[in-house]
Design a protein that fits this description.
Arc Repressor Mutant, subunit A, Rossmann fold, two-stranded antiparallel ribbon
């Protein structure tokens, strides 16, 4: 049995981690990490000057980061100002948007919760919700930035190992649908991997669609990649060879209806791929760290977003494989199977026929 001291010690560690998350969010959004990584070591005055921030706040943050072991510091009490620096490993995790170890966006996601907390409390009392739109740019950009390295570096190789999907994508003139495309990085990665395909992204969040459109243009793919603000119910029937839904089914208030619309949008013989969280097959109180962080996302972001729509099924982030399989069957797919794609971040891939 745990003692009160054991519980207090555990919670103290949690509180310290929470402080680190918020401090990482500050350093990410204010450009402090990036300046230290790109421009080199700095005093608080120098860092504030580089980033257009206040030196007193910069000093407090720098000292906290050094005490927490995220930054290195040189100088002593006799020096006018201490000099702070970031090593390569910390810089990769906190600033390298191409690295699979890039985690700063996750702090940004939890930072987005702060302004909405009164709304969350009300939702928990009434059964309402907090929408993706209300969570704002921090959440929207966080998800796009956190997922992008995996799409850029791993998605093409992962799909190349699935002939049923790869062969359809590689067919000249293939039409591809990306449901819930978000910032569009999944659509862009598919377009780069399959240069003879044409891709359409749809999303119900208008700001995400704007971001996806700009990202496709910036990637030089606007001639083959389009994104539009629309409900899946508006999809043209029999238009696509392959459909995808990347990390979004668990957010949908009406997933069966969306999957059914995607099924109708497929040509005869077309297939759909769903990528969602690789949580355990069943709830257990001794869940691992993946379960714990997914419940965190669910409590504060995904479940409230889903519940913000009327008559939501309220799936939540911790969507078990059996739940997705049931949604797929109810949507009219003949079979739902787990694809043999492993070591792909937090995610599991399903094939719906």
């Amino acid at each position: 049995m745990a003692t009160a001291d054991d519980v207090a010690e555990r919670l103290l560690g949690s509180f310290l981690g929470f402080v680190d998350v918020l401090a990482i969010h500050l350093g990410d959004r204010l450009g402090w990490y990036r300046s230290l990584a790109d421009d080199g070591p700095a005093t608080a005055t120098e860092l504030a000057g580089r980033t257009g921030t206040h030196p007193r706040y910069a000093r407090e943050w720098l000292e906290q980061q050094a005490v927490s072991g995220l930054l290195e510091v040189s100088g002593d009490d006799g020096a006018p100002e201490r000099v702070f620096s970031i090593d390569d490993a910390h810089a990769e995790v906190l600033t390298d948007a191409t690295s699979l170890a890039y985690l700063a966006p996750i702090a940004r996601m939890f930072g987005a919760v702060g302004p909405t907390f009164p709304l969350l409390l009300d939702a928990y009392r009434t059964g309402g919700g907090v929408s993706w739109e209300q969570l704002g740019a921090d959440a929207r950009e966080s998800q796009a930035d956190a997922n992008r390295p995996w799409y850029d570096a791993q998605l093409a190789d992962a799909l190349a190992g699935v002939p049923d999907v790869h062969d359809r994508l590689a067919t000249p003139g293939a039409r591809v649908l990306d449901v819930g495309c978000g910032g569009g990085w999944s659509t862009i990665a598919l377009a780069r991997a399959y240069p003879e395909a044409r891709l359409d992204g749809v999303d119900i969040d208008e700001a995400s669609v704007g971001m996806a459109t700009a990202n496709a243009a910036g990637a030089g793919l606007a001639d083959r990649v389009t994104s539009r603000h629309a409900d899946a119910a508006t999809l043209a029937e029999g238009a696509y060879d392959v459909a995808f839904a990347f990390e979004c089914v668990h957010d949908m208030p009406h997933p069966v209806e969306v999957l059914a619309a995607a099924r109708r949008a497929l040509k005869p013989g077309g297939v759909m791929v769903v990528m969602d969280e690789a949580v355990a097959d069943a709830f257990a109180p001794d869940g691992d760290e993946l379960e714990r962080i997914m419940y965190g996302f669910s409590l504060f972001i995904c479940l409230p977003d889903s519940m913000s729509s009327p008559d939501s099924v309220g799936t939540g982030t911790v969507m078990r494989a059996s739940t997705l399989e049931g949604y797929g069957r109810d949507a009219g797919f003949e079979s739902v199977s787990v694809l043999p794609i492993e070591d792909f971040g937090f995610w599991r891939f399903y094939l719906l026929r």
